[in-house]
Each structure stands twice: as C-alpha cells, then as structure tokens.
Amino acid sequence: MNLILQVEEVSVSFDGFKALDIKYFELEERELRVVIGPNGAGKTTFMDVLCGKTKPQTGSAIMADKDLIKLNEKQIVDLGVGRKFQTPSVFGSLTVWDNLLLASKSNRGIWSTLFHKPTEAMRDAIDRVAATVGLTRHLSSVAAILSHGQKQWLEIGMLILQDPKLLLIDEPAAGMTDEETEKTGELLLELAKRHSIIVIEHDMEFVRQLARKVTVLCEGRILTEGSMEKIQNDPEVIERYLGRSKRRDENGQPVAAVTAVGTKHG
Ligand code: ADP
Ligand code: MG
C-alpha cells in the first residue's frame, strides 16, 4: 500500500473556536475518498489546509516527504495538489478550448499562450481531457453558454491539465441536475484511475454511486471511516448526521436523510 498523504494532529481554530481537529487521516495512491458531514463540520477547512489557504495551529500533512503545512499555496500546487472550489471560475468570454489551453502546462504567460500556436503535445492533452470531461462537442463554444454542470466539468478538466497527483474537489454535485450528478460520479471514478482524489459531498445518492471509502467529519473531528454500508449503520453517525432528515443544504437539497441511504433489502 502506497500512501500519498498522511495527516496528523492537525487543528485549526478561528477566534478560539476549533473548526478542525484531525488526529489522523491517510490516503492511498489512486484512492478516491469521499468526505461527508453536516454543514460547518470542517470539510472545506480541511481542504483549505491541504492546499495551503489556511494554516493550522498544529500538525503535519506529509506528501512526497514534504509537509504541506510548511509550504505556500504555489509550492503545494507545484508538488501536485489541485484544488477545485465549490463555484466554477472559468473565463466565460473565452471558448472551452481557450480555457483548457490557458490551463495547460506551459512556461508562457497568458498572452503568448493565447496568441502562439500550441504544441502538438498541448493539443493532444486538451483533446484527451475534453473527451474525458465530455466537452469535445463544445470546444468552440464560449464557456458562458455552458450549463452549470458543464462549467464544473470544464474546471475539473482545467485542473487535470495540470496533471495533479492529488485532486481536492469540494461539493462538485451542488446545484447539478440528477443526470449531471451521475455523470460527475462517472467522471470521478474515471479520474481515480490516474489521480488520488478527495471529494466532499452532501448528496448521499452520489456518495453511494462512488461506492468508496467514506470519512465522516463532525464538529471538526473524524467521527468514523469506512464503507458506505458501515457508515450508514453506525449509530453515532445516524444520531449526529444522517438522522437529521429534515435538514436542507444551501441549495435546498435534503441533507442525508436516513431513508436516502437505506440499506438494501432482499
Ligand atoms: P463545512 O465545509 O463542513 O460546511 P467549514 O470548513 O466551511 O465547514 O467550516 C467549519 C467551521 O469553521 C464553521 O463553523 C465555519 O463557520 C468556521 N469557519 C470556516 N472558515 C472560517 C474563517 N475563515 N473564519 C472564521 N470561521 C470560519
Ligand atoms: Mg464546505
């Protein structure tokens, strides 16, 4: 088993309020891990720590013999960590192709990237990524006319072009239609063949589709980890998270009702 990430004793306090308190967390190479938990559990803060946006008061996060906590955001990107935030931030007035071109690994600045011919290797990489994220037919459309789901996929594609070893993806399915959500699940499973991925998600149907190891965060701490089956039968998880069946998230979606993760019968 090869670990890509080992997190120990990481704590983050905001004005004395402990938002994150992780004793131990590890991720294997090419693992796709799902992090769930109620609003305010510290999920986004965890990703903020891993990408260098927030510095914890204590702890370490070791990747490739380096401690991410001692590096700045740029150094963490260079080490191979790609972060996808909740809201898509693509260039709406540029085409899908140009967005992908700008994200491609190159030593050129923005203007020379846009106005010089891309190398064949860059074009091949863009075509491959566009196919992976299902945007081949939209390469010449301006990004502004894409659906919300397609914008999210474009941004994931832009991340992939940086060829990160570890991808951090915060609530990709938020605001998506059921069909887009399912496609996103398929995309993550495909990407997990080449990358390690941590994905935060609220939508239990989506989590079940991924069918991977789940980490439950609650009040900053890891409540438990394991298969979906283990999680949904854990009395503490049911009591503190899944049992809150009437809760809605910021998109008005029901949050993790027990019935929505009911065990299969028969
Ligand atoms: P989640 O993503 O699980 O919903 P967050 O990580 O966003 O939770 O937030 C965890 C807790 O930390 C929340 O109580 C939130 O209000 C608080 N918090 C997050 N970021 C900040 C910040 N920059 N300053 C103060 N409090 C914060
Ligand atoms: Mg969050």
Strands, helices and their partners?
Layout: E1 3-14, E2 17-28, E3 32-36, H1 43-50, E4 58-63, E5 66-67, H2 73-79, E6 81-84, H3 96-103, H4 110-115, H5 120-132, H6 148-160, E7 166-170, H7 178-191, E8 196-200, H8 204-210, E9 214-218, E10 221-226, H9 228-232, H10 235-242
Parallel strand pairs: 3-8, 3-9, 6-7, 7-8
Antiparallel strand pairs: 1-2, 1-4, 4-5, 9-10
Magnesium ion binds at residues 43-44.
In short:
About 35% of the residues lie in helices and about 25% in strands.
Describe, in plain words, how this protein is organized in 3D.
The structure is a single chain. By secondary structure, the protein is of the alpha/beta class. The chain is about 35% helix and about 25% strand. Strands 6-7-8-3-9-10 form a six-stranded mixed sheet, sandwiched between helices. Strands 2-1-4-5 form a four-stranded antiparallel sheet, with helices on one face. Helix 3 (about 95-105) runs parallel beside helix 6 and helix 7 (about 180-190) runs parallel beside helix 8. The chain is globular, with a radius of gyration of 19 Å. The model is unreliable at about 255-265 (pLDDT under 50). The protein binds adenosine-5'-diphosphate and magnesium ion. Adenosine-5'-diphosphate (ADP) binds near residues 14, 37, 39 and 42.
